[in-house]
Each structure stands twice: as C-alpha cells, then as structure tokens.
Design brief:
The protein has nine helices and five strands. By secondary structure, the chain is α/β, with parallel strands linked by helices. It has a five-stranded parallel beta sheet with strand order 2-1-3-4-5, sandwiched between helices. Helix 5 links the parallel strand 1 and strand 2. Helix 3 runs antiparallel to helix 4. It is globular and about 65 Å long. The structure holds CO-5-methoxybenzimidazolylcobamide.
Length: 232
C-alpha cells in the first residue's frame, strides 16, 4: 500500500461508504471492488451495498455532471467503477433461488448508450426469479421486434436516459400496436427523465421509478394477467 493510500478495512461502515462515494467519483475501480467486498464480509446484504454505496455514489456523480463540474471522460471512469462493483453483486443478487416468474426482454432505446440503470434492473429482475434477455444499448424498433419474436417474453422493458431518446419508446409501442402484438406484452418503461404521465402518453403499461419498483410492477402485472386467464 502506498503511504497516502487509505486502508479501507480500517474504516467503520459510515466512513467506508463515504470513502466509496469519493472513490466512485474519482473512478477508482479497484477501490470500489475492495469496498464492496469489505461491506459484504461485514454482513451487508448485496442490495444494501448496491443502493447505499453504489447507487447513491452515482447520484452524486450525476449532480456534478449536470452542473458541469464533471465531464464525459470522468463520468465514464465512474461508470466503469460502478460496473465493477455491480459485477461482484450480480451473482449474489441472483442467488435467491426464487421460482421462475416470467420472461423479460429489455434494452436501452435507439440513440442512447446509458446502460447502468438498465443493467441494475436486469440484475434485480434476475434476482427476483425473472428470466431476462438483455438487448444492451441503442436498440432499434426492428431489434426489439426480432427479440420479441425470438424469445416470446411476457414483458418488454425499455430504458432511456435522454430527453431526446425517450420519445423513441412511442415509436416502438406504436409499431407493436400496428403488428397486433401490443396486448400480448406488459410494457414497462424507465429512466431518469421519464414519469408516469409520459408512460401513459406513449402507451406503456407502467413507469418504473427504480429497479425495485420494476420488480414489484412486473410481479403485479403478471399476477393480474394470470388471474384474468384463470377466471376466463
Ligand atoms: Co449521460 N446524461 N450523457 N452519460 N449521464 C445524463 C442522463 C444527464 C441527465 C446528465 C446531466 O446533464 N445531468 C444528461 C441528460 C440530459 C437530458 O437528456 N435532459 C446526460 C447527457 C446530456 C449525456 C450526453 C449527451 C453527454 C455528452 O456527450 N455531451 C451523452 C449521451 C450519449 C448517448 O447516450 N448518446 C452522455 C454520456 C454519458 C456517459 C457515456 C459518460 C455515461 C454513461 C455510461 C453508461 O451508462 N455505461 C453517462 C452517465 C453515467 C450519466 C449519469 C451521470 C448517470 C446515469 C446513471 O447511470 N445513473 C446521468 C445523470 C443522472 O441520471 N443523474 C447522465 C445511475 C442509475 C442507477 O440510474 O439510469 O436513472 P438510472 O436508472 C434507474 C432508474 O431510472 C430506473 O431504474 C434504474 C435503477 O434504479 N430505470 C429503469 C432505468 N431504466 C429502466 C428501465 C426499466 C425500469 C426502470 O424498464 C423496465
């Protein structure tokens, strides 16, 4: 350890989490990985590490990006460190042994390369027992249609982080309607600039504020669908 390095394991929980927010801000991948491992070893649940150490750290990065204090290259380093932490948590979140709940195809819409939030949704959905087909970023209508034809999902999820890309969701949903397959799917949308009103306006079934809400909403819609089918 270099002289000015901080011994993360010597910090108490609050100190460590605060240090991890700083390390995420500075894009320090290895420190984030170490911090995640320490918190897990101290008995923190993977979900708590995710929300309190990583997501909260990224929120701070987001504010300074918005205010012009951080720029794209720095935010990319933060995103890279965040992903490294998420990679450790992913198998743990998926380890719940939950029964298979249904299948979701999800992707970030065309023109948009933000994927951290979408990846979190994938992790949480898998952890809750859903089968997830992740289409990644920058997805065209055609790509969504191909994936729906190939995987026959119960749920289509779309993510957008830019006000310029979120209208693309309407194009996808309108195309599903034209093809007569809209009502075969539960369409859930999410991303920081969206809200419920937007989701209604584009014809989605629901807006999901965060990954935990996405899981709850998916469960609720499939439960309602199964009840309808059972009583038909
Ligand atoms: Co971008 N970026 N970015 N960026 N970036 C934002 C979104 C921005 C708000 C920053 C700002 O100005 N404050 C702003 C958008 C402004 C606007 O549209 N009004 C912005 C901009 C402008 C840009 C560029 C245009 C910058 C430039 O080039 N000049 C550019 C666009 C590139 C493109 O997409 N074409 C750009 C680039 C980048 C990076 C590449 C540097 C990097 C992305 C790296 C990556 O994702 N691999 C980046 C980042 C990291 C951000 C911020 C800082 C953080 C986003 C994030 O990861 N948040 C962001 C600021 C912010 O959002 N506060 C910003 C953490 C994540 C956990 O939250 O994504 O909201 P979130 O996901 C949540 C929920 O929204 C929800 O659940 C998730 C988990 O709880 N959710 C869903 C998300 N998707 C869902 C789908 C669902 C359900 C729930 O389906 C069922």
């Amino acid at each position: 350890m270099a002289e000015d390095d901080i011994d993360l394991s010597a910090l108490d929980d609050d100190g460590l989490v605060a240090q991890m927010h700083d390390d995420l801000y500075d894009g320090l991948k290895e420190e984030i990985e170490e911090g995640v491992r320490i918190l897990l070893a101290r008995g923190w649940t993977p979900y708590r590490v995710l929300t309190e150490a990583l997501v909260e750290g990224m929120r701070i990065v987001g504010e300074d990006f918005r205010d012009g204090i951080l720029f794209v290259p720095e935010v990319l380093l933060s995103a890279n460190a965040m992903k490294a932490g998420m990679a450790i948590l992913k198998p743990l979140l998926a380890e719940t042994g939950a029964p298979r709940m249904g299948k979701m195809v999800i992707g970030t819409v065309k023109g948009d390369i933000h994927d951290i939030g979408k990846n979190l949704v994938c992790m949480m959905m898998e952890g809750a027992g859903f089968e997830v087909v992740d289409l990644g970023i920058n997805n065209s209508v055609e790509r969504y249609l191909e994936a729906i034809a190939e995987h026959s999902p119960d749920i289509l999820g779309m993510s957008a982080l830019l006000t310029t890309t979120m209208p693309y969701m309407k194009l996808v949903i309108d195309t599903l309607k034209e093809r007569g397959i809209r009502d075969d799917l539960v369409v859930l949308v999410g991303g920081a600039p969206l809200n419920e009103e937007f989701a209604r306006a584009v014809g989605a079934d629901a807006y999901c504020r965060d990954a935990a809400v996405a899981v709850e909403t998916a469960r609720e819609f499939l439960r309602r669908r199964d009840n309808r089918r059972a009583s038909a």
